[in-house]
Amino acid sequence: MFFTAEFWVLVAFVILMGVIWYVGGFRQITDAIDGRGRLVQAELDEAKRLREEAAAVLADYTRRRDEAEREAEEMVAAARVEAEGVAREAHERMAEFVTRRTAAAEAKIAQAEVQATQQVRAAAAEAAVKVSEAVLREQVRGQGGEDLLVRSLGEIRSKLHS
Length: 162
Fold this sequence. Notes:
The protein is mainly α and 162 residues long. The protein has helices spanning 5-22, 25-139, 143-161. Helix content is 94%, strand content 0%.
């Protein structure tokens, strides 16, 4: 049992462990492992901080995007309202223009009717005077008839033109 290879490997291992313990190797190993643990923990903390910052930036960009979309919707709604107002105003102006043009046309028609009526009256008066003159000339002859005719024609003209 003392001369087997496994025995001597065990003896060498125990001596090696004793030397490592004597020179403080175990403390260095644990310090190195603890340092590596602290380094990993610091990296994890940094990663957590960066993730939180990224989440905050994402939330900020999401908020800004939502605000921009809301502003765009408000702009579209305002433009729609303004366009409807402009269309309504244009429609009102067009209706007012049509009303004015209709009123002007009706005034011209009324004026033309008045002129036509006056012209018809004047033509009728002239025709009546001529007919009356012709009838009276045939019936009344002489100076008295002519005086009567001139006086009657003057009265007729004054009555028709007034």
